Amino acid sequence: MPPGITTLAADAPTLSAANTGFMLICSAMVMLMTPGLAFFYGGMVRVKSTLNMLMMSFISLGIVTILWVLYGFSLAFGADVGSVIGWSSDFVGLSGIGVTELWDGYTIPTYVFAVFQLMFAVLTPALISGALADRVKFTSWALFVALWVTVVYFPVAHWVWGAGGWLFELGVIDFAGGTAVHINAGAAALGVILVIGKRVGFKKDPMRPHSLPLVMLGAALLWFGWFGFNAGSWLGNDDGVGAVMFVNTQVATGAAVLGWLAYEKIRHGSFTTLGAASGAVAGLVAITPAGGAVSPLGAIAIGVIAGVLCAMAVGLKYKFGYDDSLDVVGVHLVGGVIGSLLVGLFATGGVQSDVKGLFYGGGLDQLGKQAVGVFAVLAYSLVVSAILAFLLDKTIGMRVSEDDEISGIDQVEHAETAYDFSGAGGGAATRSTPPAPGATAAPTNKKVDA
Fold first, then answer.
1. pLDDT digits (tens, 9 = 90+) for 224-257
2. pLDDT (tens digit, 9 = 90+) per residue, 384-397?
3. Which among 77, 273, 384, 389 could bridge 195 via Cys, Cβ 3.0 to 4.6 Å?
């Protein structure tokens, strides 16, 4: 996020209809990312877990929206308290905000800034859910989301983006969420899975995606929504920085797809659709913190590096024995770390700020700041998330029973299944109703297309 701008009364910004409309569109695009993520994750699980995976993303839209209005916006972007949290009573319930009141230093209403940031807050815990596929009680997950955003996401968002937040004041560059969103979610996922343990049959049973078309659809929706996520994070469209971020988002993502597929071909002998989709997400993650600080050539480098290293990282779960079901750690944690650290190498000093990375004559100063931000957020989220999971597991329980996990979490938790293979929707049906008077009777048990 861009830093606040101090202005004199004579040149105080006025409401811009163009920037306001632009930011509302970006907010809607970021909202679309959560259903896109639901499809992406939903296609990657087995049939018996599809609906549960979709619901683990969708419930975040309900829970986080309400908490954001009640107190989340105040905690994240209220007046600074000790450089670790925010608080402004006017933001509680969004009740003290004027309709045309502008976000400090910008030309958009505070309401627009609040709703844009809300969509980030909704998406971040939904990212965690992919690591927990097949085995978590839905009620426990919903409670975890409420607790996690309160004690992890809201404070970390203030550290990184809130005026007075300690990482903000340190000068850590995170244009749109490498630390606050992706490292935060990836570290949280690792913390939770270390507490709740592996799926039944991990490393023994095949756990292949049940619908690669759904995965590709989800990846496409994420890619589309990410332009709002990234370009919108400059909070306006007056100076070209958002346009550079838009270009870099596309460039890095394309490069990451190629990097992931090249590694996959060399390592496993095939170009897979799952690899293409995963590579795209890895590139999107990595460019998120860096895209406002680097050139398109730097974006290509970041994308290729992220594509290759994230492809390598997804296999670490088999080596170290942690069951990250849908590779949240390998893609979001690793990709977020890569993108955040590479700012310290590839920042040109000619886009969002004059800060230069090592390769542009800036020395190691920015790289050191980026490392502080990366490891502070990683450690905090990992530890606190593990504590929350442990407390929930010891009280109401985090996991479904082994029998329920084997039989299918969709039926147990939601009393539904994603696909009905027993009726006409299964592809074939039997004519069982008598013909109308005067009509020619169809042969008994003749199959007809559904």
1. 999 999 999 999 989 999 999 999 999 999 999 9
2. 999 999 999 999 99
3. 389
Whether 37 and 223 have beta carbons less than 8 Å apart is answered as no
> Has residue 423 got a pLDDT over 90?
no
CA 85 to CA 212: how far, in whole Å?
Answer: 41
Cα separations (Å) of 375 from 31, 52, 372?
A: 28, 32, 6
In the predicted model, what is the mean pLDDT of residues 405-410? 94
Per-residue model confidence as pLDDT tens digits over 124-161: 999 999 999 999 999 999 999 999 999 999 999 999 99
- β-pair type (80-81, 85-86): antiparallel
Q: What is the DSSP letter of 102?
A: B
**pLDDT for res 116:** 98
Cα–Cα nearest to 356, from 368, 369, 343:
343
Residues 6+ apart with CB under 8 A from 336: 178, 179, 181, 182, 183, 186, 285, 286, 288, 289, 374
Q: Which two tokens stand for residue 201?
A: 């049959």
Concatenating the DSSP letter of every residue in 352-374 gives SSS-B-GGGT-TTHHHHHHHHHH
Q: Taking a C-beta distance cutoff of 8 angstroms, is the pair 248, 72 a contact?
A: no
| CA distance linking residue 153 with residue 151, whole number of Å | 6
User: Which token pair is 379?
Assistant: 């450690």
DSSP three-state, residue 130: helix
For the CA atoms of 114, 115, 118, 122, the dihedral, rounded to the nearest 10 degrees, stands at 180
CA distance from start to end of the chain: 51
Q: Which whole-number Å values give the CA distances from 124 to 104, 234, 390, in the listed order? A: 25, 19, 20
Q: Are 450 and 426 in contact (CB under 8 A)?
A: yes
pLDDT value at residue 1: 54
